[in-house]
Structure formats: structure tokens, C-alpha cells
Amino acid sequence: MKKLFVFCIAVLQIYHAYAQSNEVDSLTQALQREKTDTGRTLLLGELSYVLNESRPDTAMSLAMEALTLSRNIGFEKGEAMSLNRLGNVYNIFGNY
């Protein structure tokens, strides 16, 4: 029974990693195609959210890029989202 439980946990972790990889690929492709700054801001924020726990350094960089872009274009919703994403990453790093 214990072996079955360990096997199930391993399968779930592999599936989660695979699903996350697909989502990252999809968001990255969408980001490359996006023409509007507001769209790019939202995609950067979503990509930051997806990478939050697995690659927090990358997530922070993406959130900072989204924050800079949203401030440059005066996109308040994007700025708020970016600050939220940064807060999540700082929380993961234990920087409260």
C-alpha cells in the first residue's frame, strides 16, 4: 500500500511539472505574438505567477518587467497586478 501511495505521489508531481511546462510554453509564445503593451503586461504577470514557486528569480524578473511597462503606459490594473506578483515572490523568499 505504501509503495502505491509513493507511486501515485510521484506520478502527480511529474504530471504537474509537465502541465506547468506546457503553460509556460503557451504563455511565452503568446507573449512573443502580443503587440499591445497592456497585453504584454498581463502576459508577463501571468507568466510570473506560473513560475512563482518553481523559478522565483525568473518570476521576480518578469514581474519587474511588467511593473516597469505598466508604469510607462499608465496601466493601473497592470501596475497593481505586478505589485501583487512581486509580493508573492518576496513571500516565497521569506522577505516580508
List the helices and strands and how they pair.
Elements: H1 2-33, H2 37-51, H3 56-73, H4 76-92
What does this molecule look like?
- 85% of the residues lie in helices and 0% in strands.
- It starts with a helix and ends with a helix.
- The longest helix has 32 residues, at 2-33.
- The protein is mainly α.
- The protein has helices at residues 2-33, 37-51, 56-73, 76-92.
Structural class: mainly alpha
Shape: flat
* SSE arrangement, N to C: HHHH
Report helical residue fraction: over 70%
Gyration radius, in Å: 16 Å
Unreliable runs: none
What's the N-to-C terminus distance?
A: 41 Å
Please state roughly what percent of the residues sit in beta strands, choosing from under 5%, 5-15%, 15-25%, 25-35%, 35-45% or over 45%.
under 5%
Kindly state the number of beta strands.
0
The overall average pLDDT, rounded, is 85
Biggest beta sheet summary: none
Number of helices: 4
What's the short story on this structure?
With 96 residues, the protein is mostly helical.
Keywords:
96 residues, mainly alpha, 85% helix, flat
